[in-house]
Amino acid sequence: MTLPDSIVYAGIDIGGTSIKFGLVDAAGKILHKEQRPTTAEKGPTPLMHKVTNIAERLLLYAAEEEMDVHWLGVGTPGAVDFKTGKVIGPCPNIKGWQGMDIGGTLRERLNMPIYVDNDANAMALAEATFGAATGRKDVVCLTLGTGVGGGLIIGGEIYHGANGTAGELGHITINFEGPRCNCGNDGCMEAYCSSQAIIARAKQLIKNELPPILKEILEGDLDNLNIRKLFAAHKKGDEVATQVLDETAVYIGIGLASVVNLLNPEIVVIGGGIADGGGHFLEAVFSEMKKHAFSSAVDGLSIVKASLGNNAGFIGAGLLGRINE
Ligand SMILES: [Zn+2]
How far is the CA of 134 from the centre of ligand 1 (A)? Predict the structure, then answer.
């Protein structure tokens, strides 16, 4: 079916701390966006009520503005049965969310087509449609934040795998004797490259005495350390920050080499707070990856920073129905 140019995509991105939602036109222009706190601690049922309420208000706004909305898309943490819209995988950031029938609940309430997918898949679709990988057919998306997530676009479509679990790039083992990961396995990329893992490594190196540059940036308090400040210290030449970030680039490069050998993508898009560290960091990732990957798999490949930022999740969620219509 050909979609009209007037179509407006409505999407909701459920995150661990906030729910972002909005409306995007066929050219990728954001027509409306909002966000609300997730308050995941209140439990899965109140959260589902909140999502339903947000969906109703978003669609009401679109109707009042006479926008041409054909379906609603939702992105959520965890693996998703995209045929039904049910969360089938564990969700460490939203307790009790596994098993939630997002698709069924919204369909019954809203009586319109509902598409649900994993949030990193939605982000990958957004970046491949309107973002840093526009027009590319074989795209790997890696998101580096509290967790390390991934989404795969193969032949222009989201690759789900047999059970909807494909693309868990954060849980590629990069050292089988490495630290315990949140998933229960040892030495996953996430166990080295999540924000907490990076900060923990920096704190270990610092031990008791704060080096002068970090001391100034952190106002003397090591508890103030976060990724942004680590990059700031690195820029000013702090040795600890530089060592930790160099190591992180090596870990990401090693993990990505396996992905690149397996999938031979055209482009790797890196999103999340760590990607904001600048071109130098992505170059370090690329050069490490090149050491471990086949040159034929790396030939013509680029690694770029995601360009849609925090909006990628809801934009990609809104686009989900495009593949199915
Ligand atoms: Zn893991």
Answer: 30
Cα 143 to ligand 1 centroid, rounded to whole Å: 14
Q: From the CA of 10, how far away is ligand 1's center (Å)?
A: 32
In the predicted model, is pLDDT for residue 325 greater than 60? Answer: no
Q: How far is the CA of 253 from the centre of ligand 1 (A)?
A: 17
Give the model confidence (pLDDT) of 291-315 as tens digits. 999 999 999 999 999 999 989 999 9
Q: Assess whether 94 and 144 both reside in one domain.
A: no
Q: Is there a single domain that holds both residue 315 and residue 293?
A: no
Cα of 317 from ligand 1 centre, angstroms: 25
| 2 domain-assigned | no
Give me ligand 1 centre to Cα 106, in Å.
Answer: 31
Calculate the dihedral angle through the C-alpha atoms of 287, 179, 124, 285, rounding to the nearest 10 degrees: -10
For residue 203, report the distance from its CA to the centre of ligand 1, in Å. Answer: 22
107 and 153 both lie in a single domain: no
- Which tens digit of pLDDT belongs to each residue from 123-179? 999 999 999 999 999 999 999 988 899 999 999 999 999 988 899 999 999 999 999
Residues 117 and 194 in one domain: no
Compute the distance from residue 258 Cα to the ligand 1 centre, in Å.
16
Domain that holds residue 87: 7-131+310-324
Same domain, 153 and 297: yes
Q: How many Å from the N-terminal Cα to the C-terminal Cα in the chain?
A: 6
In a domain, 172, yes or no: yes
pLDDT digits (tens, 9 = 90+) for 92-135: 778 999 999 999 999 999 999 999 999 999 999 999 999 999 99
Report the C-alpha gap between 29 and 19 in whole angstroms.
Answer: 20
Question: If you average pLDDT over every residue of the chain, what do you get?
Answer: 93
> Within a 13 Å sphere around the CA of 241, how many CA atoms are in the beta-carbon half?
26
89 and 186 in a single domain? The answer is no
Enumerate the H helices of the chain as residue ranges: 44-64, 102-110, 119-129, 189-193, 195-206, 212-217, 227-235, 239-263, 279-292, 295-298, 312-324
Cα 83 to ligand 1 centroid, rounded to whole Å: 26
Taking the centre of ligand 1 as the mean of its atom positions, its distance from the CA of residue 123, in whole angstroms, is 20
Same domain, 206 and 276: yes
